[in-house]
C-alpha cells in the first residue's frame, strides 16, 4: 500500500514536471528565429541557419552527453538527475532570455542540451518502480504529460511573446522550470543505494549480454519513431498549402495547427487504452502490431489529396506512437539489469535526440529533391527497417 501511494505521488509530480519541460521547449522554439533577429542584423539565409543551429545544437549536445549522466544515474539515482536537469534548464533558459548576442544564445542552448534529461529520467524512475503487470499503463499515461506540454506550448508562447516580449517569455519559462525543480525536490521519493564508481557494473559486458540484435533494434527504433513524428513538422504549413492551394493564409495557419496537434491529441486520448493493450499483449507483440500500423499509415499519408485525410492519418500515427515509445521502454526494463539501467536508458535518450535532428534534416533534403509527400515514403521505409530489425531479433530468440 505504501509503495502504491509513493508511486502515485511520484507519478503526479513527474507528470507535471514532464508537462512543464516540454511546454517550456514548445513555448520558446517557435519564435526563436524572431528573437535571434532582434540580436543583430542578419540576412534571411543567416537567420535560417542560426534558427536551425539553435534547434539542432541542443539535441546534438544532449545525444553526446546523455551516456555520462546515465552512469551517474546508476550511481546516485534518478531523482538527482531530474533535479540536475530542472535546475540547469532554469538557469540556461533564463540566460537565453538575457543573451546580449547570438553567440551567447547558442552556447547556452548547447549547455541546455548537455544538462537536459528530465523526461528521460522520469520515465526511468517510473519504469523501475511501477508493478510489472501495469507498467505499460503507467508509462503510457506518463507520456501524456510531455505531449500535453508540446500541444499547449506554441499557443502560450505566442500569448507571452505578444504580451511580455521574447525575453519575457524566456523568463516566464525559466520560472516554471524553477517550480518543477522545487516540486521534484519536495514531492518525489526514491530509495537509492549509492554505488561507488569502482563497483559499478561495466556497460560493455551488459550490452554484449543483451546482444547486438537487441541493442541495434532498440536504439534504431527509438531514433526512427522520433524522426518520423518530427520529420515533417517544420514543413507542415507548406504541405498544407499544397493540399489546399485555394485557402487563405489565415486558413492555412489554422489547418496547420490542427494537423500538427493531431498526433499528440490521439496519443493523449488513447494512452490508457493502449497501455492496457500493452500490458495484456506484451511489448513484443505490440511493437510488431504498431510498427506495422505506422508503416501502413505513412504509406497512405504519402498519397493524400485533402487536408482532412492528412488529419485522420496523423491521428492514427499518434495512436501508434502512444504504444511504441512505452513498448520500447518496457523492453528496456525487462531486458536490462537494474545496475546498468540508467546508462542504457541514457543511450535511449541519445537515440531519441538524434531522431530529433535526423528527422527534420532528412525531410528538408527529401522535400528539396522530390516534394513534401515523399517524406512519408522515406519515413515509412525507416519504420520498415525498424520492424525488420525486431523480426530478426525475435527469430534469433526463438532459435535459442
How would you describe what is shown here?
With 400 residues, this protein is mainly α. It is built from 16 helices and no strands. The protein has helices at residues 2-28, 32-37, 44-76, 78-97, 102-114, 118-129, 135-163, 165-187, 203-210, 212-230, 236-243, 249-281, 283-301, 307-335, 341-370, 374-399. The radius of gyration is 21 Å and the shape is globular.
Into which percent range does the helicity of residues fall?
over 70%
Put simply, the count of helices is 16
CA radius of gyration: 21 Å
Mean pLDDT: 86
Terminal Cα span? 40 Å
The dominant shape is: globular
Q: Main sheet, how many strands, which sense, barrel? A: none
- The helix/strand order is HHHHHHHHHHHHHHHH
* Structural class estimated from helices and strands: mainly alpha
Number of strands: 0
Q: Report low-confidence residues grouped into runs of 5 or more.
A: none
How much of the residues is beta strand, in percent?
under 5%
In short:
Helix content is 84%, strand content 0%. The chain has 16 helices and no strands.
What is the element layout, followed by pairings?
Blueprint: H1 2-28, H2 32-37, H3 44-76, H4 78-97, H5 102-114, H6 118-129, H7 135-163, H8 165-187, H9 203-210, H10 212-230, H11 236-243, H12 249-281, H13 283-301, H14 307-335, H15 341-370, H16 374-399
